[in-house]
């Protein structure tokens, strides 16, 4: 039976509605309100589809004003921080997907939390910048196919070297988290660093310098992978870790197939740009990019 990465998206959506005290009727009213607003946002390059609007509403706990801001940033960030976006058909992304396992666990943790698993296949292959590009593309797929509630990230550091870590800068981490705050509201439930080497402390020091304490406190460090069995359950635990779930390679291949399905969309996004001349109020790039110099703590939830 084929694996559907998002087979429980509808169940997660219904639970999210209950958590935020919403129903189908009230959500559709909110979607309509956003669509009316979009009609007069002449600087934006397209009219966002309903599925994407619903996901932005969920990400922002159904705050209409915050949803408007995030949808605007969804398009704007591609110009403000273009180096964190890349079409998956590009050679550098295809090569990177051959160097890394990038997988989504099909069954949400506790029925709610979408879980990602990342692992380098060989030594000296980790690039957080390229990984951020891949995750941005996955996010694009999820806006249409999945329910965007909260996320769990797993980084298996078995093949991560000190050389990999020394390439990571506070500026890079701040840029990555800025995109996920400004666009996706950084709905991070937890970040697991498993098979962590002694030099993981250097990576943690960068995270601590950039992130708000409540986000930093969601980072869990483990010297092995036993925590994953407890987190995911044996049926969802990837076969690489002794579980009955799909292998990391199988999950990686499914992501690549999704990218192929969405190739037309990625090509469209390459051409889309916000027309700043038509923006009702001038964009303050300094406010968005305030992490340069002395890094400001990111205000995320």
What does this molecule look like?
The protein is built from 14 helices and 5 strands. The protein is of the alpha/beta class and 301 residues long. It has a 5-stranded mixed beta sheet with strand order 1-2-3-4-5. Helix 6 links the parallel strand 2 and strand 3. The longest helix is centred in the middle third of the chain and has 18 residues. The radius of gyration is 19 Å and the shape is globular. The two termini are 38 Å apart.
Topology:
Blueprint: H1 9-19, H2 24-38, H3 50-59, H4 64-80, H5 91-99, E1 100-109, E2 113-120, H6 128-145, E3 150-156, H7 162-166, H8 170-182, E4 188-194, H9 200-210, H10 213-216, E5 219-221, H11 226-232, H12 248-261, H13 263-271, H14 285-288
Parallel strand pairs: 2-3, 3-4, 4-5
Antiparallel strand pairs: 1-2
Brief overview, please?
This protein is 49% helix and 12% strand. The protein contains 14 helices and five strands.
Would you report the number of β strands?
Answer: 5
Which outline best applies? Answer: globular
- Biggest β-sheet: count, sense, barrel? 5 strands, mixed
Instruction: Tell me the strand percentage band.
Output: 5-15%
Poorly predicted tracts of residues? 291-301
What is the terminal-to-terminal distance? 38 Å
What structural class results from the helix and strand content? Answer: alpha/beta
The Cα radius of gyration reads: 19 Å
Element string (H = helix, E = strand): HHHHHEEHEHHEHHEHHHH
Number of helices: 14
Mean pLDDT equals: 92
Order of adjacent strands in the largest pleated sheet: 1-2-3-4-5
- Helical proportion, percent range: 40-55%
């Amino acid at each position: 039976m084929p694996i559907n990465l998002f087979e429980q998206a509808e169940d997660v959506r219904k639970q999210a509605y209950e958590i935020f005290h919403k129903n189908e009727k009230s959500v559709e009213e909110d979607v309509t309100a956003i669509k009316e607003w979009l009609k007069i946002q002449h600087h934006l390059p397209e009219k966002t589809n309903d599925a994407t609007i619903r996901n932005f509403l969920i990400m922002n706990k159904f705050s209409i004003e915050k949803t408007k801001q995030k949808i605007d940033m969804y398009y704007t960030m591609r110009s403000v921080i273009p180096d964190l976006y890349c079409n998956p058909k590009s050679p550098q992304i295809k090569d990177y997907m051959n160097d890394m396992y990038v997988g989504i666990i099909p069954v949400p943790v506790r029925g709610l939390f979408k879980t990602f698993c990342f692992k380098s296949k060989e030594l000296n292959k980790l690039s957080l910048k390229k990984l951020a590009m891949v995750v941005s593309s996955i996010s694009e797929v999820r806006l249409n196919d999945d329910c965007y509630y909260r996320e769990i990230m797993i980084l298996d550091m078995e093949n991560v070297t000190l050389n990999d870590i020394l390439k990571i800068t506070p500026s890079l981490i701040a840029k990555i988290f800025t995109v996920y705050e400004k666009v996706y509201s950084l709905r991070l439930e937890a970040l697991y660093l498993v098979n962590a080497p002694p030099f993981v402390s250097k990576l943690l020091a960068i995270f601590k310098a950039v992130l708000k304490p409540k986000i930093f406190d969601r980072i869990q460090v483990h010297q092995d992978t036993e925590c994953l069995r407890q987190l995911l359950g044996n049926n969802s635990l990837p076969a690489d870790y002794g579980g009955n779930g799909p292998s990391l390679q199988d999950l990686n291949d499914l992501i690549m197939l999704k990218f192929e399905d969405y190739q037309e969309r990625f090509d469209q996004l390459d051409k889309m740009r916000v027309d700043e001349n038509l923006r009702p109020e001038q964009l303050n790039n300094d406010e968005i990019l305030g992490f340069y110099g002395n890094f400001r703590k990111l205000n995320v939830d």
